[in-house]
Amino acid sequence: MAKITTGIGTSHVPSVGAVIDKNNEQDPYWKPLFDGYQPARDWIKENKPDVAIVVYNDHASSFGLNLIPTFTLGVADEFLPADEGYGRRQVPKAIGEPDLAWHLAESLITDEFDITIANEMDVDHGLTVPLSIMFDKPEEWPCKIIPLAVNVIQYPPPSGNRCYNLGKAIRRAVESYDKDLKVAIFGTGGMSHQLQGERAGLVNAEFDQKFLEDLVHDPVGVSKKPHVEYMREAGSEGVELVMWLIMRGAMSDKVKETYKFYHVPASNTGAGLIVLEDEQA
Q1: 217 is an active site residue
Q2: Which of 51, 100, 181, 244 is deepest in the core (most CB within 10 A)?
Q3: If the chain, 281 residues long, is cut into consecutive pieces of 10 residues, what is the mean pLDDT of each piece?
């Protein structure tokens, strides 16, 4: 059967994608960040998944105020990088895994999660930047990609508890798939940041690092964190961290922390990365 072997939590800072695209990783400002990414890149080369389920949020590229699905699962054969106003990123298109994606859709919906099914969807930096962080600049992504877009832009977003339980449902769905596949799941977004208002530029490194610790050792406790705490402690965009809980819910209760990295500043954002191995895989 298919198994979830790896969980990856990472920020998806758009400027990180621009730095990669312009080959500026060794710029003195950015070098510490990319030096911190390298051990994770080395590890995943040796532990390459067959499929990656990437949990991310769309930034008004495929969805807008006219259509605001809470959870959207991409089941297409391929997903092109979105044009976010400056042309499409020159990264590989994401090749889908439709058989598994449709299996996930059926399993999750019958498991009482209301999933929107996308037969066509462009994917923006929320998905492509995490792939670049982990896989660098390949001619094609080294695994199949299943996008799972979560609304954390327009109120009301799903709760951390709902996301954590969705992760558990994803695990059940993957384990009921009869093909032998190694599956990684990415939870992306955050960490602490605020893009507007009086607190624009907010970074709460203490909150971010405690979140990384609790994600490993107390995921149930983290899942109960209310939206207002994310807003207060991690800024208006810090609520993106609920997407990491989908990743964590899809892992076993006890996980091995393979790698953890945190760096500030990174474009006025706390940039975190954590790699977890499933002890029951």
Answers
A1: no
A2: 244
A3: 97 95 96 97 98 97 95 98 94 98 98 98 98 98 98 96 98 97 97 92 96 98 97 95 98 97 89 93 62
Q: What is the pLDDT of residue 268?
A: 85
Please enumerate in sequence order all residues whose Cβ is within 8 A of that of 106, keeping only pairs 6 or more positions apart, or say none.
Answer: none
* All domains of the chain in start order, with CATH: 3-278 (3.40.830.10)
Question: 116-118 and 182-188 as β-strands: parallel, antiparallel, unpaired?
Answer: unpaired
Which candidate in 12, 103, 193, 263 is catalytic? 193
Total-model pTM? 0.97
Pairs from 258-263 (Cβ < 8 Å, separation ≥ 24): 258/43, 259/39, 259/40, 259/43, 260/212, 261/36, 261/37, 261/39, 261/40, 262/191, 262/205, 262/208, 262/209, 262/212, 263/32, 263/33, 263/36
At 146, which helix (H) or strand (E)? strand 144-150
